[in-house]
Structure to design on (88 residues):
């Protein structure tokens, strides 16, 4: 499997929308899920091939930084099938 998942967490919904938009425009990735964490934090999960997910997360980070609400980002290459089931 050459698949990866990427996550971006922001403080507030507007920054997440900005980051998500930048990610899907930057690379061939699919938005999988938005996860409200609580306390104003929200995470978006994307999937695609490893290179596309890395490029998309970088674009999302930059977009979110412009607004000033990036909390965290991470890419998981070749995630466990059980992990993918959790988000699909």
């Amino acid at each position: 499997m050459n698949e990866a998942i990427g996550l971006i967490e922001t403080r507030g919904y507007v920054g997440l929308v900005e980051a998500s938009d930048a990610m899907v425009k930057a690379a061939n990735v699919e938005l999988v899920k938005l996860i409200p964490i609580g306390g104003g934090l929200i995470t978006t999960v994307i999937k695609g091939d490893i290179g596309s997910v890395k490029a998309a997360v970088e674009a999302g980070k930059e977009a979110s930084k412009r607004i000033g609400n990036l909390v965290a980002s991470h890419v998981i290459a070749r995630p466990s099938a059980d992990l993918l089931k959790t988000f699909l």
